Amino acid sequence: xxxxxxENLTRIYRVGDExxxxxxxxxxxxxxxxxxxxxxxxxxGKSTLLALLGGLDTPSAGRVSVHGDALxxxxxxxxxxxxxxxxxxxxxxxFLLGHLTALENVEVPLKLASLERKERRARSAELxxxxxxxxxxxxxxxxxxxxxxxRVAIARALANQPRLVLADEPTGNLDEKIGREIIETxxxxxxxxxxxxxxxxxxxxxxxxxxxxxxxxxxxxVEETVQE
Amino acid sequence: MKFADLISDVFLNLTRKKMRTTxxxxxxxxxxxxxxxxxxLGHGLxxxxxxxxxxxxxxxxxxxxxxxxxxxxxxxxxxxxxxxxAPQEIKKEKEDxxxxxxxxxxxxxxxxxxxxxxxxxxRVQPKVFVLARSVxxxxxxxxxxxxxxxxxxxxxxxxxxxxxxxxxxxHECIISEAYLESMGFExxxxxxxxxxxxxxxxxxxxxxVGRGGLDSSALEKIQSIATLLKDPPKNRVRMVFSLFFLxxxxxxxxxxxxxxxxxxxxxxxxxxxxxxxxxxLLTNIVYVPDGFAIQxxxxxxxxxxxxxxxxxxxxxxxxxxxxxxxxxxKAAVKALGFRAHTMxxxxxxxxxxxxxxxxxxxxxxxxxxxxxxFSIVNTLLMAVVERKREIGVLQALGATRAHILKMxxxxxxxxxxxxxxxxxxxxxxxxxxxxAFSHYKWGHIIGSADLFVMPGWxxxxxxxxxxxxxxxxxxxxxxxxxxxxxxxxxxxx
Lengths: 228, 493
What we know:
The complex is a heterodimer. Chain A is built from 7 helices and 11 strands. By secondary structure, chain A is α/β, with parallel strands linked by helices. Chain A has one domain: Rossmann fold (3-Layer(aba) Sandwich), CATH 3.40.50.300. Chain A binds chain B through residues 51, 54, 56-57, 76-77, 80-81, 83-85, 89, 91, 95, 97, 99, 108-109, 111-114, 117, 156, 160, and chain B through 1-2, 5, 9, 12-13, 16, 389-390, 392-403, 485-487, 490.
């Protein structure tokens, strides 16, 4: 079964009187449990695709289905529930909440899911351990390195055991060595936890790790590569 | 998200910008302090005066006053309400409402008889005014100022010590405990049994009532004013000047000047001190038996027929047999066509007055609340902009619009709540300081009574109000926050 299916997915933005077609009739399929990479130059629609797959945005036309749920038909509340329970986001800029410790950041989605405090604490500690930061849980983001921050962000993305993880340039703000470690972490999680993962990247080396690569250009699919 | 988690997040968010939160709260705090102190003062004063009136006034009396005519208030209203208007036609049913209708009306004997027949009435007697100039102890050259009150007007709690009056006409008096100090005594019994002289004077204004009304040149001047008001010149400025000069002439008229000064030598009444009354707000009270008061009252009016069947004066006092009879007596007095007042009416008026005063003062306090509302709106709008990315992150992590809305609305409500708590506490401290000051400054008058009394309902109501105020102020910023586009919010630098 396909985890992700898009059909003629189109997203048009209006900038003044001008129409910008960020995505223009994109149709792709990602199988369940696959690691997919979306590559392409800036402005090719990679991040827009990720926002649509994550239910942060709604398409102007076309369909987007994730694990059988038609996102384009969902209400804002349903999309929020979808983001809470089915998707984990990892951003280039980490987007950790600066006033919370690493552990508390991981707890945020668990809090939103109304988990009991005790349960939350245990789960976030487990996740922090999983990303190798067990000793840094009580630190605030500004006390952590870039790589550590991204690991916290990954732990947060996994908090509610999503079936889909969307990572937007997760190594973009990290040096090469750390970036590689982060990718290894994601690849490992994909393999171990059988979750579908979509990575947006500029880095061909990162893209090469993915089973499927979608190259976008001007909002359209230019090339699709499937690794056996 | 669980409500408890939401609340803990809200308070965590507020502590992130402590200074800003504090400054935003200042308006609420000021408003709350103003409301708490003013309401406490109004409540305390109202309670204090209530107690004072209950302590000295007679709860068994019903005063009867004529409805029509005889009311200087009504005449004054008639004068002022027509200012600037075209002359009004005097209609029969409203003739008493015009200035020219000023007449002093006395109560007819027939009516007094009817009052005596009312069920539950023990005694009916005229409302007596005594204008006493002084009270003086025998063997003492000093004269002390005094207010002479007929015993019927006094409450049962008044008497502090002594046997009380031997009869209604006895030449006796009950003198306020406050005289003790002024007269140089230490113990109550030092005053008991002593003889005093009460000096009572005639007053021309009251003498007019004794003669049956105004018939002087002053009345002509008053009529000129009425004519001017009823037929005002078109030129309003001229009218105001004419009015000014006429009023000045009236004020300078010999008769009114004579009214201002009592005439002749005061009449002396000797009385034996048979009791000491408790010290109240009015410290210079001397109570006398009702019959004795009537004799003194006649001096004031310079008319020996006053307070007899020939002239009962302007008002009557009906003494009910019991407290239960008071409402019935009051209704019967009204049915006879009179205005009827009881002690409870007076207390009710006092409460109404303080309630109005409080409302006005609270209104001023509300200005601070009004400003505070804008301050909260402004702070939260700034917070929405500053925390745009955070909102985007929360949305990406699964926060619903409702959650974002609740979070900001609760932050606003929490500012209101905290401001209310702080303001309430400061207000309470101010009220206590006010009490300490008033005891220090007016302790000799008010005793141990508190002028600032915080009613039990005030603090909870204040907190509910300030919380709602915050909530209302937070609605718009919260709505704005909840409507943010997550993609745009995440991109926000």
